[in-house]
Design a protein that fits this description.
Blueprint (H helix, E strand, L loop, with lengths): L5 E6 L3 E4 L5 E9 L4 E5 L2 E7 L5 H7 L4 E4 L9 E8 L3 E8 L3 H11 L5 E13 L5 E15 L8 E6 L7 H13 L1
Parallel strand pairs: 2-11, 5-10, 6-10
Antiparallel strand pairs: 1-9, 2-3, 3-8, 3-11, 4-5, 6-7, 7-8, 9-10
Length: about 180
């Protein structure tokens, strides 16, 4: 087991929300649970799954300290921080409050436009089990370092599910686009 930082991407719909205090929230599934995904990285080529419970300790110890970044760029200022990390049946559900900065404004607009739909995690694997052939890894404990908005996620069954915002209510045109997308599925 290596304690090196590992990056894993997920893809799904992002959700944006703003509350009456104008807090801008992006939410989604950062990591799906119990779903094998093909990994091709510096660690090798294998399938990987994360089990429910893997984030329990990291949520308790540092959940509110997890930053939202753009493309794992740790040297840049963060876009925001976690306000909720919760293990649900389908995966690690995450909500991030975006700061009022130019970079966060741009990221929020890209999410609203559907240009960015993926989430990626920077993590350290603390507990794992490998198959006899060493071609499948099951992760049982993770130290979550950060979550990033990304273009091309590795975990295809997770990503941004929505946004919350009072500053920019959903227009009729945007609502129609979303309905057309739902009809394509």
């Amino acid at each position: 087991m290596s304690h090196k930082l590992i990056l894993r991407d997920t893809s799904t719909l992002l959700e944006i929300r703003e509350s009456d205090t104008s807090e801008r929230i992006i939410s989604g599934i950062s990591v799906p649970f119990s779903t094998f995904t093909r990994i091709d990285s510096w660690e090798g080529h294998f399938e990987e799954q994360v089990l429910r419970g893997a984030f329990k300790k990291t949520i308790a110890e540092r959940g509110d300290k997890v930053k939202l970044l753009a493309h794992h760029e740790a040297r840049s200022m963060p876009l925001g921080r976690a306000v909720l990390l919760e293990e649900r049946f389908d995966g690690l559900y995450s909500e991030f409050k975006l700061s009022r900065t130019q970079a966060a404004d741009e990221a929020l607009e890209l999410v609203r436009d559907g240009a960015i739909t993926g989430l990626s995690v920077g993590m350290r694997v603390l507990g794992e089990r490998w198959s006899v052939k060493q071609d499948r890894r099951t992760i049982t404990e993770i130290a979550l370092m950060e979550v990033s908005l990304c273009n091309f996620p590795a975990y295809e069954t997770a990503g941004i599910t929505g946004t919350r915002s009072l500053d920019n209510p959903l227009t009729a045109e945007a609502a129609q686009r979303r309905l057309r997308l739902l009809d394509l599925g």
